[in-house]
Design goal:
alpha/beta, Rossmann fold, 4-stranded parallel β-sheet
């Protein structure tokens, strides 16, 4: 089978691409990620995917559109549903592209992340597949997370610290700041 796989970043692509190929399928990547903020982060992930794809001989379709304003307009008033919108946006685009280019199935490397809502991603893929009329290829790629990390380090790929959206970036820094403040408070308590 010929499968179009949405790729959020090179790191998350490593294990899924390998597994799909090992199963005897032809795989083509699809990069479309208007959620990534700031632009420098978007560019680093795009460049890293290009580096990875050249190294492993992966053809990739690049929908290189930085649609940050549109993304923010659609999530700013519904913070709790932002991830669902983000999953749907990228999965729907992948399904449409797969159907237009006569792929047999489509999937997403989001299924590899141990930090995303796996069930929501699967349900979204299956729903979109039915709506668009192309089967969603599901596999739980999370077991390959550690291997993907090791390979990305050995390849010298850029490794991001958050999912990409401005909200997750804020959460990351807020968490780091809280942990740092907690350590200072602990030390201060030891000297009192």
């Amino acid at each position: 089978m010929k499968i179009l796989v949405h790729i959020c970043c090179a790191n998350c692509a490593i294990s899924p691409i390998e597994k799909i190929r090992e199963a005897g399928n032809e795989v083509v990547g699809y990069f479309f990620n208007p959620n990534i903020h700031p632009y420098q982060e978007y560019q680093k992930r795009l460049d890293s995917l290009k580096q990875y794809s050249e190294r492993v001989g992966l053809n990739v379709i690049y929908r290189d559109e930085y649609l940050l304003e549109e993304f923010l307009r659609n999530v700013s008033h519904r913070g709790k549903e932002r991830c669902q919108y983000c999953y749907s946006l990228r999965i729907e685009s992948t399904a449409q592209e797969a159907k237009e280019r006569n792929f047999d199935q489509f999937s997403t490397t989001l299924l590899q992340s141990t930090h995303q809502d796996h069930n929501q991603i699967r349900e979204t893929g299956e729903r979109v597949g039915k709506e668009v009329g192309i089967p969603f290829y599901y596999e739980d790629f999370r077991q390959g997370w550690r291997k993907g990390l090791e390979v990305s380090k050995s390849f010298g790929l850029y490794r991001q610290q958050y999912c990409g959206c401005i909200y997750s970036e804020k959460e990351r820094f807020m968490k780091e700041n809280k942990m740092s403040n907690d350590k200072v408070q602990m030390r201060k308590g030891e000297t009192d």
